Amino acid sequence: MGETFQSVLVTGGCGFIGSHFVELMLSQYPNMLITNVDALTYAAHPDTPARLSAVGGGRYEFLQKNINDVSLGADLDRRGVDVVVNFAAETHVDRSILEPHIFLETNVVGLQNLLTLCRKRNLRLVQVSTDEVYGSLEPSDKPFTEQSPLSPNSPYAAAKASADLIAFAAQRTYKQDVVITRCSNNFGPGQFPEKLLPLLIANASEGLPIPVYGDGKQVRDWIYVTDHCAAVDRVMCDGKSGEAYNISAYGEQKNIDLIKRVLDIMNKPHSLIQFVGDRPAHDRRYALENKKIGQELGWSPKFSFDEGLAKTVAWYRSNEAWLKKVRGQDYQKYYKANYDSKMKQTERAV
Ligand code: TYD
After folding, report:
1. Structure pTM?
2. Which residues contact 276 (CB under 8 A, 6 or more apart)?
3. Using a 6 Å cutoff on CB, does residue 213 contact ligand 1?
4. Which helix (H) or strand (E) holds 314?
5. In this structure, what CATH number is given to the domain that contains residue 33?
6. Which residues are catalytic?
7. For residues 21 and 292, what is the distance between their CA atoms, to the nearest angstrom?
8. Is 326 contained in some domain?
9. What tens digit of pLDDT does each residue of 303-313 get?
């Protein structure tokens, strides 16, 4: 199926999900050229370019560039690219609350640059979006479908929703070939430890407190990262232009239940849990219907939540040096202040 395309440009291919997608493309399609464009922001592990290069050999090229860079046009031509898959994004909700501007620059203006470059060359653009564009559900609501209205609550989600609207506007206005994927919360190896799961594992292994926002009863819908990547591949190859495809594995979990499970797997005490003040405008529940991609493109997830969780915890436990390296790189500058203030807001311990 991936043979539909000979040369794929992936943006954000050194990030968590993008790097899994690059690996999938390289291993699944032995003749495919991959160009990986990544700005190597804090969320990219410094070893990722070399690691992917070792996997890809001569078929693979890494370019350290921002997606706002117009010189990417020359790269698209030189590499004979026939499809662009945009994983590049600022993704952390807490950070978007502290520094919203960069979210617009990368997630919105950057996407516009890619759209313009693709329009000039008649290239398909796959925009990797998120279920967070739909906003929040009540416990009794049905999961979001592709028809659910966009109702984002955080600066991050609003930037992603804006990008979705701009991408569809380009598809209608210029008849560009654009498809959008909207996936639920990902987990798996290599996620930057600002997100709940790797943060929890990193803190638990160092005996540090686990900050739980609010009452911890918020629900997230989890999917193992390689299942997401396989779904993006299906949409890239056969998704209908102008359509959005939800991607999920029906993996709803309350945060507090997930945290306790991981602590149990790691044999760590629940006393590490510390309830802290809530995230402003914290979405209560995400849940995503995946019928459309199943029926139209024949995709379904391979990993159950339990299998994915076991693999994920095992990976972080045997890659503690990786965790320490990424955390050390950014921890002081961005996270520590935020973390300390969360700790100061501690309301009660379990
Ligand atoms: P996160 O991993 O930031 O993803 P998202 O906000 O995009 O869903 O957070 C997942 C859930 O975990 C979310 O409800 C917020 C909560 N959370 C905590 O309770 N404590 C934390 O330290 C973090 C990072 C998240």
Report:
1. 0.95
2. 211, 212, 213, 342, 343, 345, 346, 347
3. yes
4. helix 305-317
5. 3.40.50.720
6. 131-132, 156
7. 21
8. no
9. 999 999 999 99
